[in-house]
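Task card 7
Instruction: Convert sequence to structure tokens.
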Amino acid sequence: MTPHSSRPLVTTDWLASALGQKKLCVLDGSWHMPAAKRDAVAEFEAQHIKAAQFFHNDEISDLTSDLPHMIPTATQFAKQVSALGVRDDSHVVVYDTSGIFSAARVRWLLRYFGLQNVSVLDGGLKKWLAEGRAVFNQPETPYAGTLSARANTAMMRTAPQVLSASKDASAQILDARNPERFEGKAAEPRAGLRSGAIPNSKNVFFKTVLNEDGTLKSTADLKHVFADQGVDLKRPIITSCGSGVTAAVLLLALETLGHNDTALYDGSWSEWGGLKDYPIMQD
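Output:
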């Protein structure tokens, strides 16, 4: 189950007024699919919100795994993230260049390791720039501090656990990939993976919970999005996607609706699609 947080989102106005506060820690959690051929680090160095540090999704991960950006150990996480200035008492605000995309994954990971006061910047750097707000290209050295990382494994599901839920309907499984991939009509962007979806899962494409400007939709609109896909907001939910990134966008949307009986399938389709003995469904 995902723990409750008092402020899952903050606005650009809120962040602009809070910059400089002692406990505030701003992270750029931008990540892009390899096919996009974008360098998130270079983009961060060229322009970022004042005092922001770069959270490298592919480096702050289990480097022993063949799967992309899987959860690291608590020791590794604490060492790498405390070096970014994140402390036990920090209010962390995470943004990305897309609006709400990989920032949601970073927030989920921070909370998985025990940080409660973590927010996503609604609309991200995209909205920040559209409003003409200041960005910087000079590096800043963060203040190191104490970070006590303790994994909350109840927030995550493994492939065998998802398989069990698929069979016994103990939880609804929501897939955040686009409909073409979910239905098995489009090839997966990662080589060697089967096409299709987890049996008995429902497709809630992550972009359907977002507005055109990259901000999260209103609670009324979000309720309609989930209802249209047959999601029961009173029952447990496991979210999945291609590699555990946009699954976190759905969790963010669900949390704003007060639904915290949720978990994320960390391996997602990068794992399931490669497990030859695991079932798939295709439309």
